Amino acid sequence: MKPFIVLALCCSFFSSKANPLPFEFLDCDDPDVFKAVDAALKKYNGDRATDNQFALYMVMEAKRTAGSVTQFYVKYRIKETICATEENKLWQDCDYKVPAEAKTGECTAQVHMNNTEETSNVLQDCKIFPVAPKITLTKATCLGCFHPISSDSSEVSEILKQAIQKFNRHSTEPALFKLVEIKEAKIQVVAGWNYIIKYEIKETNCSKDQFQDLTPECKTISRG
Ligand SMILES: *[C@@H]1O[C@H](CO)[C@@H](O)[C@H](O)[C@H]1NC(C)=O
Ligand SMILES: *[C@@H]1O[C@H](CO)[C@@H](O)[C@H](O)[C@H]1NC(C)=O
């Protein structure tokens, strides 16, 4: 059996069902979420001595550890403002820079709020993106372009796992097939995310009669 290439396409792959951790998802407009994001963003601005302040642009995702009122996980987007950091203004009082000059960023933060002390403990990672190119025409035609992404990413492996499961369930082959190699992974940003992943699968020594799904003992067999 010759190995062959399959194409997987997946839209907006940000479902929570693959996440077994005991989190509860919160509404991004929840006042507690705003407090957590505010604390995280103030910390981010406070830690940078130079450049301008960033202001909140959008809360992407918010959850907290189930049963806890103080432990938050938030993902939010920020945009550069016209306020210099040393002005010490509140970010809420700062206007965004014009789009052609504003840096943007995305932060993932873990925030522990201490409501009695009115303090917070923030662990976060922010990625800042450079100013968008000035030639908006190029940008417009390129919305929807595919960009290569790392084939090691957890999104890619989760998509592939599901795609191969689906393939095995529906194929007419007597044996289960298994991933051999990821050839290429690309992402397209449109209204959501489209992934295109090219990968190679090979027949294993587990027959569908004996096995419902792939197990570690299923090894690929090289024939032909
Ligand atoms: C809040 O901070 C105080 C003093 O640092 C501490 O004693 C208390 O346990 C904290 N509360 C929470 C919920 O972490
Ligand atoms: C498949 O092959 C591996 C290694 O050769 C072996 O350990 C395993 O038991 C085999 N599985 C089946 C279902 O024959």
UniProtKB/TrEMBL annotation:
Q: Does the keyword Chloroplast apply?
A: no
Q: Has the keyword Disulfide bond been applied to this entry?
A: yes
Q: Which PROSITE patterns does UniProt cross-reference here? A: CYSTATIN_KININOGEN
Keywords tagged on the record: Disulfide bond, Glycoprotein, Protease inhibitor, Signal, Thiol protease inhibitor
Top-level division of the source organism's lineage? Eukaryota
Point out the signal peptide segment: 1-18
Q: Which GO terms describe its biological process?
A: negative regulation of blood coagulation; positive regulation of cytosolic calcium ion concentration
Coiled-coil regions listed? none
Q: Which residues form the Cystatin kininogen-type domain?
A: 28-132, 151-224
State the GO CC annotations: blood microparticle
InterPro entries attached to this UniProt entry: Cystatin_dom, Cystatin_sf, Kininogen-type_cystatin_dom, Kininogen_Fetuin_HRG
Tell me a Gene Ontology molecular-function term this record carries.
cysteine-type endopeptidase inhibitor activity
**Name of this protein:** KNG1 protein
Record the organism: Sula dactylatra (Masked booby)
Gene this chain is encoded by = Kng1
